[in-house]
Design a protein that fits this description.
By secondary structure, the protein is an alpha/beta fold. The chain has 11 helices and 8 strands. Helix 8 packs across helix 9.
Length: 254
């Protein structure tokens, strides 16, 4: 029997999940979404017409419920739904900071609680998504089968989720703007839009392969290119990454 899905929160990550499911032809029995913003819901339903817009309580009654909210509002939301969720519901939080124990305790000792740190690349079914399950979670294999539609989904210890949020989930944002800037620079130097995109994309992919799969050490890889135009700025860039991301990690830790 097909399961029904409920999304509490209809923002970016819910859109990513629905797009990923759509790409694979995955069709749950029903998909219910609740959000405080009517504009968000209208936009979501325009893209995914089969989505059912519901109340918070109705979304919480589905077989599998995703908590797609920011950490500061999760606990108060759980208070609102704790008398509406089914005892055999699979409750999956997509947020850092709020632990499975806290979620379970707020939902009257609910057994089936999981946490997933999703990745934006799930939009094209190439996510790198760590997940953890409560010790007495029932139906883990079925949940993993569904989550693997998003990309590579793998089970980790709960204590590592926030590190994955920094090192993986947010990782593209540290580089996307730099790659885009390289497109602009290449075009200023004479390449057309397609040529600049092709040059940056193919070189980046090959560069990653060289770093991780060439058999060379980091120092040996770096030595392959004699000219390093921004080497003088590397200490500053490293400080920005370390200080900014270290501070953010402290904020999202449980």
């Amino acid at each position: 029997m097909k399961k029904t899905l409920g999304f509490i929160g209809g923002g970016r990550i819910t859109r990513i999940f629905l797009q990923s499911f759509h790409n694979t032809g995955f069709a749950p029995a029903k998909v219910a979404v609740y959000d405080i913003s009517n504009d968000v819901l209208t936009s979501l339903q325009k893209t995914f017409p089969s989505v059912e817009i519901t109340t918070l309580e109705q979304a919480a009654t589905r077989d599998i419920v995703f908590i797609a909210l920011h950490p500061p509002v999760i606990m108060e939301t759980l208070d609102c739904i704790k008398n509406h969720v089914k005892q055999d519901v699979c409750m999956i939080s997509l947020a850092p900071k709020i632990t499975m124990d806290r979620i379970s305790a707020r939902l009257n000792g609910l057994s089936n609680v999981a946490r997933l740190i999703p990745n934006a690349t799930s939009y094209i079914n190439k996510g790198y998504n760590p997940v953890c399950f409560s010790g007495n979670f029932a139906g883990q294999d079925d949940i993993m089968e569904m989550l693997n539609l998003l990309g590579h989904t793998f089970v980790v210890e709960e204590s590592k989720l926030e590190a994955y949020a920094i090192a993986s989930a947010m990782l593209p944002t540290y580089f996307w703007f730099q790659w885009q800037e390289m497109h602009h620079i290449a075009q200023k130097m004479g390449l057309d839009a397609n040529e600049s995109r092709d040059a940056v994309e193919k070189t980046l992919v090959a560069g990653i392969e060289t770093l991780y799969h060439s058999g060379l050490s980091y120092e040996e890889v770096i030595d392959l290119i004699p000219v390093k135009p921004i080497a003088a700025h590397e200490p500053q860039i490293k400080d920005i990454l370390s200080n900014t991301l270290g501070g953010l990690f402290e904020k999202i830790k449980p």
